[in-house]
Amino acid sequence: MDQHTFRRRGLGLRGVDDRVSPGYVLYAPLTSNTAHLVSTTGKEVHRWTLPHRAGRHARILPNGNLAYNAAHPEAPALFPMWAKYRGGMMMQVSPGGEIQRQYSDPLAHHDQNHLDDGTLLYTTLEPLTPEEASKVQGGIPGSEAKGIVYGDCIKLVDPWSSGNESSSADFEVEGKGAKLLWSWRAIDHLDPAVFAAHPHYPREHWPLINSVSFDSEGNIIASSRNASSVFVISRATGEVLWHLPAPTVSQQHCAHQINESGDLLIFDNGVFRPGVSVPFSRAIIVSKEKVVKWEYKDPSTGGLGFFTPFMGSAQKLDGGNVLLCEAADGRIIEVTEGGEIVWEFVVPQLGDYKAVLGSKELGEMESIGFDYLSNAIFRAYKYRPDEVPWLKEGWLSNWL
């Protein structure tokens, strides 16, 4: 009998309904250096093989290139969990696999956004001074990384104005490579009492921002995992304009605006949901008035059948359906506005971190419990057929 639970329960396409939206789903397994595009029938129709393992996720840009967030091979070892969620190599890759552009920041983590004007908006971190670190509230006492608290930063960068390869080191050299257009430090603008880390979190990284994106007014939507907060940052002043705290959200991910009214779609993980003893995940749409206008959680199990303790994404599709990524176990579903599942797919690529990590990084990963065959992904995205016009039947066989 197969002893791997996911494989025993079944991988690949698990079900499809005629109400599924047309298109292709993209995902990048975290234990590999590949990105995959599958049809609604569960057939893999395209694959990219990249030079580095997935740092987090991938997207397809309007020009057809893949925006791939890889793990920087020379990133410093800051603390054990850093090996799990760091990124640092932001590249654009053609459908044929050629790297068109590349930008690196070894301290980047979680989210990256390749914007239409060629700029990058992404999350990074830096060590706080002892004085700054003393202001950070919450977390496990004494759990700093070698006595250091790393604080989050958000950067907007023009990476390719003078070439197709650049790095954050270029900021120090006038006229060279990448240009820093805007930056923001959490410690300068967040009230540590309001954005205190939950008591069970190590104090190594605060406030652990796991998603950033622009709203329709040009301000920045950010999601903090260890403070269970979604907030909007004024690009002009850096101050917090809007704040959605717990218990509405709980260790959430992927907060982003979905319409002109300013509603946000959020993947709400729910690991330590206040007042709830049994954890469950959900996706919610929240208005500017902080009213939950829509919610999906698994109705057939009281919520127990849909849960990922970390990572995850939600994407509003044309026609009203929502694509959801139950990330830790590689499960992707599409649901209707009424909460019915119309497509279910489980990532079939079960991989071992040993295949993609060096010995030092592998030791860090194993020390935090990630020493098993995994099909985890950070996010999944769906694209209409007209958004991937380069895709042709038989293309995959030409590149494998």
From TrEMBL:
Gene3D superfamilies: YVTN repeat-like/Quinoprotein amine dehydrogenase (2.130.10.10). PANTHER family: ASST-DOMAIN-CONTAINING PROTEIN (PTHR35340:SF5), PQQ ENZYME REPEAT PROTEIN-RELATED (PTHR35340). This is Uncharacterized protein. InterPro entries: Arylsulfate_ST, ASST-like, Quinoprotein_ADH-like_sf, WD40/YVTN_repeat-like_dom_sf.
